[in-house]
Design goal:
The complex is a heterotrimer of chains A (305), B (623) and C (300).
Chain A: H1 2-29, H2 33-37, H3 44-54, H4 60-72, H5 86-98, H6 100-121, H7 126-140, H8 143-157, H9 170-199, H10 202-209, H11 214-252, H12 257-266, H13 270-298
Helix pairs in contact in A: 1-13, 5-13, 6-7, 6-9, 6-11, 7-9, 8-9, 8-11, 9-11, 10-11, 11-12, 11-13, 12-13
Chain B: H1 3-24, E1 33-44, E2 53-63, H2 66-79, E3 97-102, E4 132-134, E5 143-145, E6 148-153, E7 159-164, H3 178-190, H4 197-205, H5 210-213, E8 214-218, E9 221-225, H6 250-263, E10 271-277, E11 281-286, E12 299-304, H7 308-317, E13 322-325, H8 330-336, E14 339-353, H9 359-362, H10 369-377, H11 381-388, E15 393-394, H12 410-420, H13 425-434, E16 442-447, H14 456-469, E17 473-478, H15 481-487, E18 504-510, H16 515-523, H17 540-554, H18 558-575, E19 578-590
Parallel strand pairs in B: 3-12, 3-13, 16-17, 16-18
Antiparallel strand pairs in B: 1-2, 4-5, 6-7, 7-9, 8-9, 10-11, 11-12, 13-19, 14-18, 14-19, 15-19
Chain C: H1 2-8, H2 14-29, H3 32-46, H4 48-51, H5 89-125, H6 127-142, H7 145-156, H8 160-187, H9 190-197, H10 202-238, H11 250-256, H12 266-293
Helix pairs in contact in C: 3-5, 3-12, 5-6, 5-8, 5-10, 6-8, 7-8, 8-10, 9-10, 10-11, 10-12, 11-12
Classes of the chains: A mainly alpha (305), B alpha+beta (623), C mainly alpha (300).
């Protein structure tokens, strides 16, 4: 087990290194960040002064070394626009995004589990089909569209939910709904198929023969076992969550890392963009690693694969 | 799963949604308007700097749909200039909270030297005063008292003297003196982190060495020594032109250091800093000892909400008292019962040709001045105002000139605008044929949605649409603002094939009362845009411009200076290189239940110097 | 009558009856509604210049914000209404389908080809090559999709090429991973061993003996990912990092009308519904293909 964890950690570090290389290369591929930092009417000397200050006049391999050693220490340089350490900006905003995670996860799981279970139990009936339909609808509808229509229906028309920004509990509903819908389909399908598998096992059949009540069979014997593979989906969910947050936070004026990403992109704030992308990758990798390790504990067969 | 059933289920769902939206939406506003009458009402006004006769054009439109008629008319009535409203009745001490949602909050720093653009600094202007302020009493804004209440050029012309208001205090209770002003200007000029362009300009206009250029005469008097005569020196010390002259507390900053100051910023404006979160909000509390006056509200929150639809919903639900909006959203605001406030003269949309001084440009169609004039004649500016801007635009004067411009013959240029900027596709086609391009040609048009003007790309599409009608195919390239701005700088144009060279781009000019610095940025050989070429490649027009420019910035005789300024305007106008499209306005929507009728400052689109004047609903009701 | 005659005269060979029945069954089993939607979209995209009533970029400022024809104030000229620049929504929808499909097909072909070949090599060669390719796959998959595209849009500038490239860069990893899995399961088959004994080269075995057997999986993957690509393109265009205006794209159309849902719902609701319908159609069609061709992939 320790060896497995060690190997996975090592892989993760190599992955991060690759991502860092890509980010660095892309950021240097075009334009000079110094152009963005000087005032509009700056003279050429002022521009060169800032270039020197940022170390942009040094050879690329030196810059890369500085960037990587800085990144290891958590220093990604200062944001061009906000004039603050990029990492600090990221970690200031991260909690706001994470606050959306539980509710959107809850919405996704809360819809996906009943749908998946019902679909598996009523396999082949219209209920199964309807559940599938709802799931497909969730994955096929662009989340920005759900957000816009959601604001219109619930804020403007019915006037029951606030249209945006952080605030009381009601502020969380629309963004979380937008973020949650996309994951429903994947989860529902996985739950359905793993439920079908479990329903087919000997012990469930035995329980049924013993005359255990149907609902008890489903919820106690089946679901618990069927949920193990769903664990792996958490990693996928977090990946999708980070992506979805970009669109969702833009629409709902949510001050999280998604908005920060879009700001960095629109203003070409390269130090900030590098920090956001790398730290996002760290989070996604860490969650996936944790999930894999947890999964390996629960399901020992994986380890030897 | 049977595919059919799944399909049907989702189809029904989506159809239901469409019907719900279609059915639930209020009957769409018919936007085709017939202009039935055009009444020109000349209004006599007195301006601070020069006295001019202003013409304001009131356009009454008839809306074809009966039901919406009232709403739209109401919108348009508010849109026309109104006489200044007497400061609203103040009911004792400040109360309540004012919540304003804005599309842009700039760099969101708590240090004036870290925010370079005045237009983005509306979150800082409540906290810090500038040496010179605005004239709130005039309908046409202009310069007014700031920290200094009296100022002027000294008789020998080589220095300026500023007399500070007596009894001013910072938020921490310390008095504001001439030492603070000297310290602040020097901090803006020489602090290594400073991004304020005015600091740069200031240091170039001040006599060396800088320590002696700003002289503290006594606690309330400063003298600044300039390099030669600088009749427009005042323009570097106010938010009315760029972003200069912000006054910070010397003793406080020296005691707590830069970081301490940024953690707990102290200024002398009508609002005290009460916290902020980058990317989200700024909070303020009213300060009762500001010379600008005491705010009506006890607290204020500025929220950053870049998404237009969210902002509209927020003012509709009462989550926000005031929002800024684009002209396109005016019908939405009218439908939701919010009240519109229009600020006039805030800027001008321009399209500009780049790199025409290159020999390569001469062989291009756009190298021919007749072609450039034809491109202007092809644009129906009134249609752009009526439809693209929903009526919220005004006919334009020449490049970077406004009814409030200093040293400018306003009636002459307003007349020029009506004549030269007319819509005349026949003449345009004739000019094209004359130049040898009867079938048109292709040109690259660069556009971006600058923050603060998120509808700029719509304007670009409207302009290129008109060009298409006379056969000019514009290849519209939309890029991020962060890419756009560096491309307007000379280092991006060192080679013919680079940057915007040979192409045309859109951008906007802020409504500054002083046109000369704006002309300098685009046409001066040492400038960024070098539209007439740099020192080595200067065109004949560029040489003439340079001669006039020297007079316009240093001549002390008002008439001669004005003559040179007007000659520059004519020179540039005849070249059709930087061509005005329309003059823009700034729009705000207020919740009439919480906020009373208020006014912006003519020519300043942002509200940094206005927030403290916004009354409660009962203080100055809308009806 | 005819039936009777058939019965009396030469009895039809049982296979034919069975086959005819089977064909009928299969036709019935075809996912007709998704298929029709997909066909309409392809048809519209290919024949856009003929089908579209107006030019998608031709604006008529005086005709801005016309509601759809069936609503009060609508005009037959603009069946689905017009947008804020007075451009015909239907025409933009039709040309937008073109953009969506161009992006989907080029990105899927490129991503599929790259990912397929790398997956083949990775699975067949094993060892260090396999490790290297799979680590690259992991790195790509760890990168949030839209972030990647945004980064590209920032560095390369917006445009069709950028969008295609961004989507390709994400897709190849998915294709590589699945293809590799397939190859691994095929590698130990007897016929491969036989081919090897006969002296076939590794390249020949990969492309002649293994590739055709991976083809089904590949096709299923392609179909299942069309929806994803269309959604990604739409999201990017919505965020202003995709296809730049005035070229119509569905995501951008939704973005155009996002602030006008209350007064001009048709600008963003119609393209939004179009995206949903098409993505559902491709997903269901992909499901059907998977069930028919490669039931193993069920968990995809």
């Amino acid at each position: 087990m320790q060896k497995y964890i060690f190997n996975r950690l090592l892989q993760g570090i190599v992955l991060l290194f690759i991502v860092a290389l890509i980010v660095f290369a892309l950021a240097r591929a075009t334009g000079n960040p110094a152009d963005l930092m000087v005032p509009e009417d700056a003279t050429e000397e002022e521009r060169q002064f800032i270039e020197r200050n940022l170390g942009l006049d040094r050879p690329y391999h030196v810059q890369l070394f500085v960037f990587l050693t800085g990144a290891i220490r958590g220093d990604f340089g200062d944001s061009i626009v906000y004039r603050k350490p990029a990492a600090e900006l990221f970690f200031e905003r991260l909690p706001n995004t994470l606050k959306l995670l539980p509710l959107s996860m809850f919405i996704a799981v809360g819809v996906a589990i009943p749908l998946g279970v019902v679909a598996a139990v009523k396999r082949g009936t219209w209920i199964d089909q309807l559940a599938g339909g709802i799931a497909v609808f969730g994955v096929a509808t662009p989340n920005f569209w759900i957000a816009i229509v959601g604001i219109y229906i619930f804020s403007v028309w019915l006037d029951v939910l606030p249209p945006g920004r952080m605030g009381g509990p009601s502020h969380y509903i629309l963004p979380a709904l937008t973020l949650g819908t996309f994951s429903i389909a994947g989860m529902m399908r996985l739950i359905r198929s793993s439920m079908l598998e479990v329903l087919d096992t000997e012990y469930v059949k035995l329980a049924r023969i013993k005359g255990v009540q149907e609902w008890k069979v489903f919820w106690k014997h089946c679901l618990r076992n069927a949920l193990i593979p769903v664990l792996t989906l958490f990693g996928v969910f977090v990946g999708g969550f980070v992506t979805g947050a970009i669109v969702t936070e833009t629409v709902f004026a949510w001050p999280g890392i998604g908005r920060l990403t879009i700001d960095a992109v629109a203003q070409r704030d390269f130090p900030l963009l590098q920090a956001v992308i790398l730290l996002d990758a760290v989070i996604i990798l860490a969650v996936n690693l944790a999930v894999d390790i947890l999964y390996a504990y629960v399901n020992p067969r994986i380890r030897y694969n | 799963m049977s595919i059919k059933a799944v399909w049907l289920a989702s189809l029904t769902l989506s159809l239901a949604l469409v019907l719900a939206c279609g059915g639930a939406a209020p009957a769409p506003i018919e936007v085709t308007r017939v202009v039935t009458e055009q009444v020109e009402t000349p209004v006599e006004v007195t301006r601070v700097v020069t006295e001019q006769v202003e013409k304001s054009v009131e356009v009454t439109r008839v809306v074809t749909e009966q039901v919406e008629k009232e709403v739209i008319r109401e919108v348009l009535v508010v849109a026309t200039p109104v006489p200044p409203v007497e400061s609203a009745v103040r009911a004792g001490a400040p109360t309540g909270t004012l919540t304003v949602s804005l599309e842009n909050l700039g760099a969101q720093t708590t240090d004036p030297i870290l925010q370079g653009r005045a237009g983005h600094a509306q979150y800082q202007a409540p906290i810090w005063d500038a040496l010179l302020g605005f004239n709130y009493e005039s309908q046409y804004g202009g310069l007014g008292r700031g920290v200094a209440h009296e100022w002027g050029i000294d008789p020998d012309g080589s220095s300026w003297t500023f007399h500070l208001e007596e009894g001013l205090v910072f938020h921490n209770g310390e008095p504001l003196t001439a030492e603070d002003v000297k310290f602040s200007l020097e901090r803006t000029m020489f602090h290594e982190e400073s991004v304020v362009g005015d600091g740069n300009r200031l240091s170039r206009q001040l006599r060396q060495p800088p320590e002696q250029a700003i002289e503290v005469v006594d606690d309330l008097t400063l003298r600044m020594h300039t390099v030669g005569s600088k009749p427009h020196f005042w323009s570097l010390l106010t938010r009315a032109v760029f972003q200069g002259g912000q006054i910070m507390p010397k003793d406080y900053i020296e005691a707590v250091g830069d970081d301490g100051f940024r953690a707990e910023p102290v200024g002398s404006g009508p609002w005290m800093y009460a916290g902020h979160s980058v990317g989200d909000y700024f909070q303020y509390e009213a300060f009762d000892k500001s010379h600008r006056g005491v705010p009506h509200f006890a607290k204020m929150s500025l929220l950053l909400v870049p998404e237009e639809s969210t902002k509209l919903a927020m003012v509709h639900t009462g989550q926000s008292d005031i929002i800024d909006l684009v002209p396109e959203s005016a019908p939405e605001v009218a439908a939701s019962g919010a009240q519109l406030t229009v600020i006039e003269g805030v800027g001008m949309f321009i399209y500009q040709f780049w790199g025409l001084y290159w020999p390569e440009a001469q062989s291009r169609p756009v190298g021919d001045v007749r072609v450039r004039q034809a491109m202007s004649l092809a644009i129906n500016r009134q249609d752009i105002i009526d439809y693209t801007l929903n009526g919220f635009g005004r006919p334009s004067m020449p490049f970077a000139t406004f009814p409030t411009s200093v040293d400018v013959d306003v009636p002459r240029w307003q007349k020029w605008g009506e004549e030269a900027l007319r819509y005349d596709p026949e003449r345009a086609k004739a000019l094209l044929a004359e130049a040898g391009y009867p079938d048109g040609f292709e040109v690259t048009f660069w556009s971006t949605n600058f923050s603060g003007t998120p509808y700029m790309n719509d304007l670009s599409q409207a302009v290129t649409g008109f060009w298409e009608e006379i056969g000019i195919k514009a290849d519209l390239r939309i890029i991020e603002g962060g890419v756009f701005t560096p491309m307007t700088r000379r280092p991006g144009h060192d080679e013919w094939g680079e940057g915007f060279n040979g192409g045309v781009s859109i951008y906007r000019n802020a409504g500054r009362p002083l046109p000369v610095p704006r002309y300098q940025t685009t046409f001066h050989p040492d400038s960024n845009h070098v539209a007439f070429g740099d020192r080595d490649t200067l065109t004949p027009e560029g040489k003439e411009y340079l001669r006039l420019h020297e007079i316009a910035i240093s001549e002390r005789d008002d008439e001669k200076r004005a003559a040179a300024t007007n000659a520059i305007i004519q020179l540039v106008a005849d070249q059709w290189i930087g061509v005005p499209i329309v003059q823009g306005v700034s729009l705000y929507a207020s919740n009439p239940d919480t906020v009373g009728r208020w006014q912006g400052i003519y020519g300043r689109g942002e509200l940094g110097d206005v927030f403290h004047r916004i009354p409660h609903a009962e203080g100055n009701p809308w009806q | 009558m005819a039936e009777g005659r058939t019965n009396i005269s030469v009895p039809a060979p049982p296979e034919t009856v069975e086959r005819r029945w089977q064909l009928k069954y299969e036709l019935k089993q075809l996912p007709w509604i998704p298929l029709i939607i997909i066909l309409i979209m392809v048809f519209a995209a290919v024949l856009a210049p003929i089908v579209a009533p107006h030019s998608p970029t031709k604006q008529s400022l005086r005709d801005k914000l016309r509601p759809p024809a069936w609503q009060e104030g609508g005009q037959a000229q603009y069946i689905l209404g017009s947008d804020i620049l007075g451009r015909d929504i239907l025409s933009r929808l039709i040309y937008g389908a073109r953009v969506s499909l161009i992006v989907a097909f080029t990105a899927l072909l490129a991503g599929g080809a790259i990912g397929g070949v790398l997956g083949l090599v990775s699975g067949y060669a094993g060892g260090k090559v396999d490790t290297l390719i799979m680590r690259a796959v992991d790195a790509t998959l760890a990168f949030p999709t839209i972030l990647f595209a945004l980064l590209l849009a920032v560095t390369m500038g917006q445009g069709l090429v950028t969008v295609v490239l961004a989507v390709t860069l994400i897709l190849w990893a998915r294709f590589a991973r699945v293809t590799r899995g397939e190859v691994l399961s095929l590698k130990d088959n007897d016929y491969i061993a036989l081919a090897r004994v006969h002296g076939c080269s590794g390249v020949r075995i990969m492309f002649v003996h293994i590739m055709p057997n991976v083809f089904n999986t590949f096709m299923v993957m392609l179909t299942l990912h069309v929806g994803l690509v269309i959604l990604t393109e739409a999201s990017l265009s919505f965020l202003g990092a995709g296809i730049p205006p005035p070229t119509p794209s569905w995501g951008q159309m939704v973005a155009d009308g996002r602030a006008k849902v209350a007064t001009a719902w048709w600008i963003s609701i119609i393209p939004g519904v179009a995206i949903t319908m098409v993505v559902i159609a491709f997903n269901l069609f992909g499901d059907w293909m998977r069930d028919r061709l490669d039931p193993k992939l069920r968990q995809l």
